[in-house]
Design a protein that fits this description.
There is one protein chain. With 334 residues, this protein is mostly beta strands. It has two domains: 118 residues, no CATH class; 145 residues, no CATH class. The protein has one helix and 22 strands. The strands form two sheets. Strands 1, 3, 4, 7, 9, 11, 14, 16, 18, 21 and 22 form an eleven-stranded mixed beta sheet that branches. Strands 2, 5, 6, 8, 10, 12, 13, 15, 17, 19 and 20 form an eleven-stranded mixed beta sheet that branches. The relative contact order is 0.10.
């Protein structure tokens, strides 16, 4: 028999309330069911650490591959020579175009009918993806009437990575027994030429994009009025001219540097005159002169115009111009 849990009075089996105190009677066997709670949701473990590890491994492998493939650890030595020959010619037109090269043009008595010769050497280092021959060379010869045209092309080989180190030297030998018209252009490299009394010029152009131009003239000859064009885009132009014997014609010298300086040393005597103009955008013009008019460009030698003359035009955009000019008559400054 059940009892009231509050007052202890006896209860009927089916009683819902205590007859004494009125307290509700809990049903026997009735079990309050708890509201089911959703099971805690398991958060999946982030996959980022694994992805990051995979990416790092791939990156390391790629870097190692690049280092192995392109790192310049293999020594390369390359040499090639060529020559141009022709009989019954009295002038040589040399046209050289180089992507990368330090070019030296030299006068040399060559054997037989040989009019020009060239030796090209390249040293450097490469990775496993570079070819054994770092340069692609092209040579051409054409004889028209009494003129031999000799063309030379120098560039990197297509399978030679630009990141690999390469030092190219090009020595060009020309026979001074014929008149010379020389055109040399380089993208990267220095151009040098020394011309002395053995040579007769019909024209000269020396141009480099990144590098220097160095030209020396000493008692050279000309067949007619000629231009000398010297230009460096990023670099300097240095000119040294000595002339005491009359040329019978005029030489127009144009020397230009865009980013860099221009330097002129001019020593003339007797019936050789000169007029020198100089312009610069950002940079000064420094003049030292003897036998010339004043200390400001344009300068004219005391005998200008003479039987033969140098008409000199110097220009620099970002750089200075240095002029050292002297004129003498019969060994004595006028």
């Amino acid at each position: 028999m059940p009892y009231c849990h509050k007052c202890g009075a006896k209860l009927d089996d089916d009683a819902r309330f205590c007859p004494v105190c009125g307290t509700p009677v809990a049903q026997v066997g009735a079990v309050k069911q708890a509201t089911p709670q959703p099971a805690p949701r398991q958060t999946p473990r982030a996959a980022f650490p694994l992805v990051a590890i995979v990416l790092v491994v791939i990156l390391v492998i790629a870097v190692v591959g690049v280092v192995i493939g392109f790192a310049p650890f293999q020594q390369v030595n390359f040499t090639q020579s060529n020559e141009a020959s022709a009989g019954n010619v009295n002038s040589l037109r040399l046209v050289l175009s180089a992507e990368i090269a330090n070019v030296n043009v030299m006068l040399k008595d060559l054997p037989g009918n040989q009019r020009a010769a060239i030796n090209i050497s390249a040293t450097g280092r490469r990775g496993i993806f570079g070819g054994d021959e770092p340069l692609a060379l092209a040579f051409g010869e054409d004889t028209n009437n009494s003129t031999l045209t000799y063309s030379i092309g120098i560039r990197r080989a297509e399978d030679w990575p630009t990141l690999n180190m390469l030092d190219v030297v090009c020595n060009v030998y020309v026979d001074p027994s014929v008149s010379l018209d020389i055109i040399v252009r380089t993208t990267t490299g220095t151009i040098t030429m020394n011309a002395d009394e053995e040579v007769t010029f019909e024209g000269l152009t020396l141009e480099t994009t990144t590098g220097n131009v160095q030209f020396s003239w000493e008692e050279a000859k000309i067949a007619r009025n000629i231009p000398l064009n010297l230009k460096a885009t990023t670099g300097s132009v240095d000119v040294n001219i000595t002339q005491s014997r009359q040329l019978a014609f005029d030489v127009t010298l144009n020397a230009e540097a865009t980013t860099g300086g221009v330097s002129l040393v001019l020593n003339i005597k007797n019936d050789v005159g000169a007029r020198i103009s100089a312009t610069t955008t950002l940079g000064g013009v420094d003049i030292q002169q003897q036998g010339f008019s004043g200390n400001q460009a344009p300068l004219e030698s005391d005998n200008y115009p003479a039987g033969s003359n140098f008409i000199v035009n110097l220009s620099a955009t970002l750089g200075g111009i240095d002029i050292n000019a002297s004129y003498e008559l019969g060994g004595t400054r006028s």
